[in-house]
Structures are given as structure tokens and as C-alpha cells.
Design goal:
The protein folds into 2 domains: about 200 residues, NAD(P)-binding Rossmann-like Domain (Rossmann fold), CATH 3.40.50.720; about 80 residues, Alpha-Beta Complex (UDP-galactose 4-epimerase, domain 1). The chain is of the alpha/beta class. It has a 7-stranded parallel sheet with strand order 3-2-1-4-5-6-11, sandwiched between helices. It has a two-stranded parallel sheet with strand order 7-10. The protein has a two-stranded parallel ribbon with strand order 8-13. β1, α1 and β2 form a beta-alpha-beta unit. Helix content is about 35%, strand content about 15%. It contains 10 helices and 13 strands. The chain binds nicotinamide-adenine-dinucleotide (NAD). The site of nicotinamide-adenine-dinucleotide has 29 residues, from α1.
């Protein structure tokens, strides 16, 4: 089989690296990134080539898209704090970036496009588990948090209505992917860090701050399951389709702490903090569309958390 030339923009990030690795087994993969994350290219296979790229620079994006068969756009400014504090930067990368990529695809005759959206497009979904057909929502345009979800919704709209019709697209909506090297701006690495920074109190417990008392729920999907899901979408997914990627096991955030308590052999004193404005109580994807293609998650939360914990412990 002739290998395709695949450009993964934002490919050095947490899930980008997994996508580069899985695709580099069968295709020529170029990772293009500004390396604001994962400067040292940790966990990226040596089969992957690298190009420094700022997605907001159209000329560079266009040059890099030359001779590409497939372009995948994952570049985004992530991390909840950034949504609240840097909404303009979030939009710049989200929208100028997406526009540049689509214009470059048009100019260079690229044959396929894949876009990383997010579970945040559902915000507080009307139906849980949430299928791809549930409506996308921006509840309050005054809240800077929705720079992220809003950027993703417009990114999706552009796939459907702006990308040249000759180019088939796939949109995937990841739901709480976790694993080694995911940064520190997410709940699991934040907990691991807090656990090891916390000092034992007089009750022999470790005080840990938890937003909303840990009663919100999410579905956590280990990185390797994400990689398999992506591969299945790549090989068997339909043209112009949207896929949720994740697991359909919904757990309270407290459950994460219970498992981490067993892994670290520490007991916690939980200190309740307010949830940030606009955060959501429940999220769990309906993944039946992906299951019909042959996907089912393999890793249990215990296994995935053990691996993630071990990686961070070593890293810290
Ligand atoms: N990890 C998850 O659970 C999750 C959930 C929902 C959506 N997503 C989406 O999936 C994609 C990848 O997520 P991730 O967890 O790997 O995040 P990440 O932050 O690790 O990866 C994003 C990548 O984009 C790059 N980037 C940022 N600005 C750039 C710019 N101006 N030019 C070029 N590259 C730039 C970063 O350096 C980074 O490598 C993102 O679009 C994210 O919004 C991820």
C-alpha cells in the first residue's frame, strides 16, 4: 500500500503525539507545532518528522500543506485557566488557525481533513449519555470560558460549510482523555500534584481541595483507548461524519480520589471549593456510533490511573 503524507498540526501535544504514533505505523507523518507544549517531543515515535509551525502564519501553513494527502488540526490553546484569562489568544489559534488550514487545503489540493473538536461543545448537555446529535450550546457569550467551546463550535461549522465540498472531513469530539504527559491543567494530574505537595495533618490525612466537593461526573478515557478509537475512525469511519471519542462509564470526581487514595496509600481530607462559573455537572458520551465500527474501550479507570500516576510520580 502506498503511504499517505499526513500532516498533524498540534501533533506534539498530549493526544497529538498518540495520533502521530499510531498513524506513523502505516503513513508518512509530519508533526507541525509551535512546541508550546512538549518542547522535548516526549512520547513521540522517531518515525515522525517535525516542523516548527505557528498555525496563525498562513504562508507557513500553506507551504507545509504542499504535497499533503491528509491534514489533521489539533492546534488549540487548552487548559481551563487559559479560557478565562486569555480568551482572545484562544480565539486567535482556534479561528485564524482553522481559516488558514482550510485555505491552505484548498490551495494545495489536500484530499482529506480531520478536526479535533471537544465534549465542551455540548456544554451542559440535555441528554446524558450524549450522542453526536444532541445540540451544541453557548449558554452565555459574556463568560470568557466559552472562548473554548465557541471556538470549537465555529471550527466544526467551518468543516461543514467553509471547507471546499470536494474535501471529505471527519470531526471527533474527545471526552476527558487522560494519561502520561497530559500537562498539569487537568483534574487528574492536578490531583496527583496536590497529593504529593500536601502535608499530613493531625488526623494523619492529606488535605486536598476539590471543586464542588467532587460531585460532578465525567467519563475518563485512557490515552491508549483514545489511540485505538482514532485509528478505527481513520480506517473505517464515514466521510463527513462526527464521532464522540471516550468511554461510556460515568464516574464522580470523588471516585478518582478514591482510586488515587488506594494507589498512593494515603487518606485525604477533602476541602470543598466553588466550581468555576460555567462548569458543568455531568458529562458522558454516547459512543455507540464508534462502537458500530468495532471500538470498545479496554483500560479500566484503575489501570489507567495507575499508569498515569506512575508516570507523573517519576516526572515530578
Ligand atoms: N485531551 C482531551 O481530553 C481533549 C478533550 C477535548 C478536546 N481536546 C482537543 O484535542 C486537541 C488536542 O488536545 P491535547 O489534549 O493534546 O492538548 P495539547 O494542549 O496537549 O495539544 C495542543 C497542541 O497545539 C499546539 N499549539 C498551540 N498553539 C499553537 C499554534 N499557535 N500553532 C501551532 N501549534 C499550536 C500546542 O503546542 C500543543 O502541542 C485540542 O484541539 C483539544 O482542544 C482534547
Amino acid at each position: 500500500m502506498i503511504k499517505k503524507n499526513v500532516l498533524v498540526i498540534g501533533g506534539s501535544g498530549f493526544i497529538g503525539a498518540e495520533i502521530c504514533n499510531t498513524l506513523s505505523k502505516t503513513e508518512n507523518v509530519i508533526c507541525a507545532d509551535n512546541y508550546s507544549r512538549n518542547e522535548q517531543k516526549i512520547n513521540i515515535s522517531s518515525n515522525v518528522s517535525h516542523e516548527e509551525l505557528d498555525i496563525t502564519d498562513f504562508n507557513k501553513v500553506s507551504l507545509i500543506c504542499k504535497n499533503m494527502d491528509v491534514v489533521i488540526n489539533l492546534a488549540f490553546i487548552n487548559g481551563t485557566r487559559n479560557f478565562y484569562e486569555r480568551p482572545r489568544d484562544v480565539f486567535k489559534v482556534a479561528l485564524e488557525g482553522q481559516l488558514n488550514v482550510m485555505r491552505a487545503i484548498d490551495d494545495n489540493n489536500v484530499k482529506r481533513f480531520i478536526y479535533a473538536s471537544s465534549s465542551e461543545v455540548y456544554q451542559t448537555p440535555e441528554i446524558v449519555p450524549t450522542s453526536e446529535k444532541v445540540k451544541l450550546v453557548i449558554p452565555d457569550i459574556m463568560n470568557p470560558r466559552y472562548s473554548y467551546g465557541g471556538g470549537k463550535i465555529v471550527g466544526e461549522l467551518m468543516c461543514v460549510h467553509y471547507l471546499p465540498k470536494r474535501v471529505p472531513y471527519q470531526i471527533f469530539r474527545p471526552h476527558n482523555i487522560y494519561g502520561p504527559n497530559m500537562g498539569f491543567e487537568h483534574v487528574i494530574p492536578e490531583f496527583i500534584k496536590k497529593i504529593y505537595q500536601s502535608k499530613e495533618n493531625l488526623n494523619n490525612k492529606f488535605p486536598i481541595k476539590v471543586q464542588g466537593g467532587g460531585l460532578s461526573s465525567r467519563s475518563f478515557c485512557y490515552l491508549k483507548d483514545f489511540g485505538r478509537a482514532f485509528r478505527i475512525m481513520w480506517e473505517k469511519g464515514g466521510e463527513n461524519q462526527i464521532y464522540n471519542i471516550g468511554t461510556d462509564k460515568e464516574v464522580k470526581i470523588l471516585e478518582i480520589l478514591n482510586i488515587l487514595s488506594r494507589i498512593t496509600n494515603k487518606e485525604f481530607d477533602l476541602i470543598e471549593e466553588d466550581l468555576p462559573l460555567g462548569s458543568t455537572e455531568r458529562r458522558c458520551p454516547d459512543i455507540s456510533k464508534l462502537k458500530k465500527l468495532g471500538y470498545s474501550p479496554i483500560y479500566s479507570l484503575e489501570e489507567g490511573l495507575q499508569k498515569t500516576h506512575d508516570w507523573y510520580l517519576n516526572y515530578l
